[in-house]
Fold each of these.
Amino acid sequence: MAEGSGSAGKVYPGMVECGIKCPKCDGPVPLNGPWETAHCDRCQADIDVPHDFWTDIFNDIIEEIKSGDLAEGEGRNSTIFGTFNTTLLYGHLIPYCEECKTDFDMDTLDLAPGNAFVHKCANCGRKTNVAPPPAWTKEEYPKAKVFVNAIMESGDKGEAPAVSGPVAFTCPQCGGALMVDGAERLMPCKFCGVNVYLPDDLWFRLHPAKTKRRWFIVMADG
Ligand SMILES: [Zn+2]
Ligand SMILES: [Zn+2]
Ligand SMILES: [Zn+2]
């Protein structure tokens, strides 16, 4: 299905690992894909991420690759004080399998997929998600061709809760057995009516904090 695109000209593979500080509470917010909105797990704020936040980062990577500043296999850490307080690890790296570190074969990677697809590692068989760019890049950043191992929208699956299904919890007021599904942190006890605020250990088990993830953007001119 993946038609070879090796003849399509030069491609620039960039690796990204990125996090910002929440502007409201200073909590760490990983950006695990080219999101337009991020969500702070600590204070529940939704944070708008401007498009040029991403295009600046992608342009820097592509320029450093073209100028030879960033040789293949090289990565760099940077801290950016701009729209956000950002920590960024970026590099000139071909997407690779997280399990066995085998590089993707760039000659056969579909650089114009209509839909997201799964790349199977040639060595160990591990599956990695490959996605077409989000809609906004079509006009604003056509150099973006595919995203590898990124979560394409904040809140997407891919970060499964540590527990699935409802969890039993005892009402601290009346001792009634409540079933907690994690939808709301403050829930009324159906026996005594008191509002029960779920404690941190239970809440964070139902809503694990997102961790930073390494993802790739494959770019090409035109
Ligand atoms: Zn916050
Ligand atoms: Zn592998
Ligand atoms: Zn109760």
Amino acid sequence: MESAKKIINLLLEKRGFDFTGYRPAMIERRIQSRLRNTNCKDQEEYFSFLNQNTDEFDHLIDAFTINVSRFFRDSLTFDYISKIILPDLFLSKDHEQDNNLRIWSAGCSFGEEPYSMAIILKEFLKKEKSTKKINIFATDIDRKALACAADGSYNFDSVKDVKFGILKEYFTAEGNQFLLDPEIQKTVHFSFYDLLDKKHLSPPESIFGGFDLVLCRNVLIYFEPEHQKEIFRKLHKSLKVNGYLILGEAEVPNQEIFHKLKRETNCCKIYRKIG
Ligand SMILES: C[S@@+](CC[C@H](N)C(=O)[O-])C[C@H]1O[C@@H](n2cnc3c(N)ncnc32)[C@H](O)[C@@H]1O
């Protein structure tokens, strides 16, 4: 484990990526995979290799940032958002005479999650003939994933859970790729943001938090409890009162913010800020 710490510290020093709060078992597994790829016999040898091969930093960062995602992942969550949450959100926006909806996808990977939100919102606006302005901010620490996200081109695995009608309406098949409708692409603003960033409570591009809905799914599972706590604090602060926090299937809010959130439904990990 000592060598793993040296490797993590080197990554922090040379590239500014802080993986010190990630679960040790996950870090160990990922370093082992790089050892196999680089033919290093142990972590000490890999540490020296890393010191001498700057390209390897990129591979190591790739190994640590697990980007698995797909459109409409946990489809029940998206159904719930579109059938229950959006009507409620739009109604309260009408009461408040607020024409803006602010959404943050934290740990957005290749963009499947924020784009799924953009699609259900487009469908909702169409159905309700609403003119509300939708602002979707999507952030990640993986710059390569962010660049791909902005590109809007996906393979079959990414779209395999998309209903046929939606696929037909919002994607164009080209070779073995599915190209997302540029109109949907335009509604999502991608930027780099580290959830452990101590300077900014929410992505600087979003100017201020005040989000109506925050998705942070399948990201917290990679962190140690201490760092999860920091992230939960940040997510909670970034939400408006009554705003929604959407977590991944295996994630639950920690003790500290548990009483400041109300579970919205038992069928998915959706919470509402109450205090
Ligand atoms: C498994 S993906 C989840 C993607 C999407 N939210 C979903 O549920 O399908 C996890 C993402 O979290 C990002 N991530 C990991 N550590 C992060 C951090 N400290 N700040 C922001 N994003 C981070 C990774 O780069 C990766 O793209």
